[in-house]
Specification:
There is one protein chain. It is built from eight helices and three strands; from the N terminus they run αβββααααααα. A three-stranded mixed β-sheet has the order 1-3-2, with helices on one face. By secondary structure, it is mainly α. The chain starts with 21 loop residues before the first helix and ends with a helix.
Length: 177
Amino acid sequence: MPTIEKTLAMGLRKPPSHLLTDDEIRQLKDDIRSIGADESIFVFNSEYVRGTCYRPQDDKVHIKGNVLRDQSSTHPRDLLSQRAVLAHEYYGHRPYKSQYLSEFNKLDTDKDEFLLVLAKREWADEFRASYMAARNTPGLADEDRYYLILDALERAKEASISIKYNEFIRGILYGGY
């Protein structure tokens, strides 16, 4: 099986190994409610994942310590608020559950080919998740939308992909949206 290296930056957020405290979980639940998400979809301190992510297999957003940001960084991914990260997973990834499940089913046929295809377009999936979260999440602060768009653009840049700004992106970055 070929080795696939993940080339996208993970950021300098809190480590996934950080166990969320009761106070942090309470704050996260407030954030979940503020963006109109279904609280029952979220699992805290999950043992099934290495970091915060959406798992289509169980239709859950698994939350680990890396949901918490590092304000000492200048990278957009690090500066995403926990509310923006929750929106990225819930409004950015979750709507594509059937697509993910269809792709995961291909694992049984040709794992090597599937993994190579998946690795090559990971940037696009993450770009879409941040873009769609910025566009579709209710109750999100302007700053959160701004950093989600910066994150999307950074993911494209990391993949050496040039993105033409549409009206929504320009409005978020330069005002007027």
